[in-house]
Amino acid sequence: MNIDYTQLAALAAILRSGSFESAATALGVTQSAISQRLKSLEERAGTPLVLRGAPCRGTETGRRLAAHFDQVGLLETALSKDLTALTPRTARLRIAVTADSLATWFLRAAELVPDLLFDLVVDDQDFSADWLRRGEVVAAVSAHKTPIAGCDSFALGAMRYQATASPAYMTRWFPNGVTAQSIAQAPMLRFDAKDQLQQNWMKHHLDVTPSPPSHRLPSSQGFVEASLRGLGWGMNPDLLVRDDIMAGRLMPLLPNSAYDTPLYWQASRIVAPALAPLTDAVRRITRQRLAALGPI
Predict the structure, then answer these.
(1) Are 235 and 135 within one domain?
(2) Which residues are registered as beta bridge partners of 151?
(3) Do 174 and 267 sit in the same domain of this protein?
(4) Together in a domain, 153 and 43
(5) Whole domain around residue 83: which residue ranges?
(6) Helix extents (H) in the chain
(7) Does residue 257 share a domain with residue 125?
């Protein structure tokens, strides 16, 4: 279908702001105009694009069309550097990142490209690439090395994790050391249902994969604080807990038991030239912040 970009702008504004009223304000038009533009676009697409609610959410097709609109904006921004007569809209990038990357290094990279706006989707490193496969983001921080179709893959390094707990927690739950038996009873921290880091660590170091009682806590900083307060043990990024370990506020469950998770930057090839400044910034910062990748 031929795309009317005023209609596409209305769709993107609805999904970005969560309502027709806010989208109208953002675009400087009436709410009726927003509704009409969306209706026309849905008729052309032959499928609903927005799920009405509070907030409004996009259907799969709606999210893909909104992502296309953002990609065009990114290309316009790059083109405007060569065509000074072109006045582009500010590019907005939808990117899938891991919570721990967001908490430790991604924002350091983002500040190096101040002309861009970010719409960040937070997901587990084993699932973030799915957003790229669906065409809903232009780049992703992922655990997958093999390039997604239509994307380039760049090795970033490894996010190093430490299995840590407070000294009081260690005394209570592991008085005789961390064993396969004791860890099955000790309360554990888990980010969300997708989080397998704790199980991977137990399998690697203790050759067991029990299902201990666990707290679900979807916050990187919250994970650290919960560990400090003795709620449970969990896999914390070394970058976040290094000082706490050195100060004795947290303890590794086992000596020399760091666990590295390789990370890759998967970026859409279609907009690769326009994404280049961000890609360069991501690679530069991760060279400084992440551990070197070992044999994979």
Answers:
(1) yes
(2) 268
(3) yes
(4) no
(5) 1-90
(6) 5-17, 20-27, 31-45, 60-80, 99-101, 107-110, 129-133, 167-173, 180-183, 197-206, 220-228, 238-246, 272-289
(7) yes
> Of 137, 69, 60, 65, which is closest to residue 97 (Cα–Cα)?
137
**179 plus 250 within the same structural domain:** yes
pLDDT tens column, 69-86: 877 777 776 666 666 555
- Between CA 200 and CA 205 the distance in angstroms is 9
Q: What is the pLDDT of residues 12-69, one digit of tens each?
A: 889 888 899 999 998 899 999 999 999 999 888 889 989 988 888 888 888 888 888 8
Number of domains making up the chain: 2
Give yes or no: residues 257 and 124 share one domain. yes
pLDDT in tens, 190-241: 999 999 999 999 999 999 999 999 999 999 999 999 999 999 999 999 999 9
| In the block, residue with structure tokens 């043990």 | 233
Q: Answer for the pair 234, 164: CB distance below 8 angstroms, yes or no.
A: yes
Contacts of 182 (CB under 8 A, 6+ apart): 173, 174, 176
At a CB cut-off of 8 Å and minimum separation 6, what does 81 contact? Answer: none
CATH of the domain at 10: 1.10.10.10
Q: Which one of 45, 73, 90 terminates a domain?
A: 90
